[in-house]
Design goal:
This protein is mainly alpha-helical and 380 residues long. It contains 15 helices and no strands. Helix 5 packs across helix 9 and helix 7 packs antiparallel against helix 8. The chain is globular, with a radius of gyration of 23 Å.
């Protein structure tokens, strides 16, 4: 029953939008929309656990804002607007022209996006690694059971965890830059974007955390009834926006940079369906919207059910998804990443975390007691 109610809104939205697309754009658009919407829903299922891990670090009402509007707005903004913004900055062009090129000339836009991709990947790798390092070095000093044994437990107890986070991120940026430089013969046009992207990624993370700390510090001791009004509301919005940016960047890096397909143009996904540029963009935006709504509802349900507390290693799995993503982004600057790795690594890690969280021992003991003579054997 819970699963059925969870799927009601996204599935009804999918059916209604598919019917509208059929009547307005034709059956090809409707079928393409359904295929993309189902793909987005499937990807949202993988993303919900890391998203719930981020939501668990928020305090009300920032958590409510994040789980309702923040996730949807963040996913849409990062998936649709960041690539044109990056191309506009890299080519020093008008952002509106970059959006138009993405819709009407996807081939040319893909070429321009490929030019700025090294800087984006380096930026995302450094930023996402620092988010993962919050768990790895246990920067908030939370009490937890280690998933991967003694090494993880030791890393969670290191002195000055924030310094370790910055040192490891800086090491990743430096090592990747050196390897890229060696591979490219130390060509400045190739090396400079990687160095600048990684450095800006570290700076963006520190700036985001500074804003979040300011907002949280400003609301400590504030009356709960008045926290959503006046300046308190702006601080809560600022706090939630840093989390939306954090998760939106993760989703963007996974599906846009590693997958290499830009959502707005539908390049490689809708091109064979005979749809026009605007029709492709409309179908892609609608499908991403459906996936974002489902992601918000699934994350909210997981948060309400305290799934990350009852399944003790899910939060660890969610964190390691981010760590592996950062390593994949750094690696992608040197060698291509196979699509099967991009599509399945998150599912594998979350699946392992879920499997190790389940009470197999308790279930086995209960099954033994249910067998004839099992109760005497258990006592003996």
């Amino acid at each position: 029953m819970a699963t059925r109610s969870l799927l009601t809104v996204p599935l009804l939205t999918t059916v209604a939008a598919a019917a509208l697309a059929w009547f307005v754009l034709g059956p090809a658009a409707a079928l393409a929309f359904v295929a993309l919407a189902l793909l987005e829903i499937a990807m949202a299922a993988d993303s919900s656990v890391p998203m719930a891990g981020i939501a668990s670090r928020l305090h009300s009402p920032a958590r409510r804002l994040f789980l309702s509007l923040g996730i949807v707005a963040g996913v849409l903004a990062m998936r649709l607007l960041l690539p044109p913004a990056a191309v506009a900055v890299g080519d020093a062009t008008d952002p509106a022209s970059s959006v138009g090129e993405a819709v009407f000339a996807p081939g040319s836009f893909s070429a321009h996006l490929a030019e700025v991709r090294p800087a984006l990947a380096a930026f995302g790798a450094a930023f996402i690694w620092l988010v993962f390092a919050e768990y790895l070095f246990n920067t908030d000093r939370a009490s937890r059971r280690s998933w991967l044994g003694r090494l993880e437990a030791r890393l969670a107890r290191v002195a000055r965890p924030r310094v370790w986070s910055l040192v490891t991120a800086g090491t990743g940026v430096l090592l990747t830059s050196v390897l890229v430089g060696v591979d490219a013969g130390w060509s400045p046009p190739t090396l400079l974007p990687v160095v600048l992207g990684g450095t800006i990624g570290i700076g963006a993370y520190l700036g985001s955390k500074r804003i979040a700390a300011w907002a949280l510090r400003s609301t400590v001791g504030t009356d709960t009834a008045s926290i959503g009004t006046g300046s308190g509301a702006w601080r809560i919005h600022a706090y939630a926006s840093t989390v939306v940016f954090e998760r939106g960047l993760v989703v963007f890096m996974l599906f846009e940079i590693l997958d290499g397909v830009y959502s707005l143009s539908g390049s490689g996904v809708l091109g064979g369906d005979g749809l026009g540029a605007l029709e492709q963009a409309a179908v892609a935006i609608a499908a991403i919207g459906v996936g974002a709504v489902f992601l918000a509802r699934l994350t909210s349900r997981l948060d309400e059910a305290s799934g990350l507390k009852r399944l003790r290693y899910l939060k660890a799995g969610a964190a390691y998804v981010l760590g592996i993503l950062a390593v994949l982004l750094w690696t992608s600057l040197l060698v291509p990443i196979p699509g099967v790795v991009v599509g399945w690594f998150g599912s594998v890690v979350i699946g392992l975390a879920l499997a190790t969280s389940l009470p197999w021992g308790a279930w086995w003991r209960r099954a033994r007691r249910s067998l004839p003579g099992g109760a005497r054997a258990a006592r003996g």
